[in-house]
Amino acid sequence: MKFINLIIEFAARCVAVAMLFAILFVASSAAFAQSKQETEKWLSDFSFTHSRWVNDDGSMGMVLFTLDNCAAEERYQSIKDGNISIPRDDKDLWWKFSFGDIDPEHIKVHVPLDHHSVATYVELETTDSKSVIYINGGSTGVAAVTINIDSVENAKRFSNALKHEVLLCGGKASTF
């Protein structure tokens, strides 16, 4: 009987230690999670560095991805011979949306399948495919948008950060 009591006491202590570790793990994970403001800055900086492509005229296309309190917009930039052109008015706006409208389960990395498809990109789709991503400053919306990223590894990192931002902004999964 004494042996059984020792085993029960040992098991109880193991459970207590396991619960303590679980609590510490959850607390430390929450402490290291990026805030909305930190995530938005990271996304903006990262896209500026890694969202690039070469245009037919030899210029490099890239985006100026700006975020503010869950609202996002991306403006096209062109660099040729060291000169940067940044559009300034809404007719040049590429797309605009709120992260709260994005389905976190429909943020996907697309990898080129062959040498003819050179772009790696991240695709975002709205919850329930609502047309609330506005392109070129227009009033007609679409339900999905893509963002070119320079490598598969960077696209995966960007995708994870986008999912985090969507969850921070209240994005919900589609009904079906």
Question: What does this protein look like?
Answer:
The chain is an alpha+beta fold. It has two domains: 1-32; 36-168, PH-domain like (Roll), CATH 2.30.29. Helix content is 36%, strand content 33%. The protein contains three helices and ten strands. It has helices at 2-32, 36-50, 152-168; strands at 52-54, 60-68, 71-80, 83-85, 93-98, 102-110, 120-126, 133-135, 141-142, 144-149. Strands 1, 2, 3, 4, 5, 8 and 9 form a seven-stranded antiparallel β-sheet that branches. It has a three-stranded antiparallel β-sheet with strand order 6-7-10, with helices on one face. Strand 1 (52-54) and strand 2 (60-68) form a beta hairpin. Helix 2 (36-50) packs antiparallel against helix 3 (152-168). The longest helix is centred in the N-terminal third of the chain and has 31 residues, at 2-32. It is elongated. The protein starts with a helix and ends in an 8-residue tail after the last helix.
Low-confidence stretches: 27-31
Q: Helicity level, as a percent range?
A: 25-40%
CATH fold assignment of the largest domain: PH-domain like
Name given to the CATH architecture of the largest domain: Roll
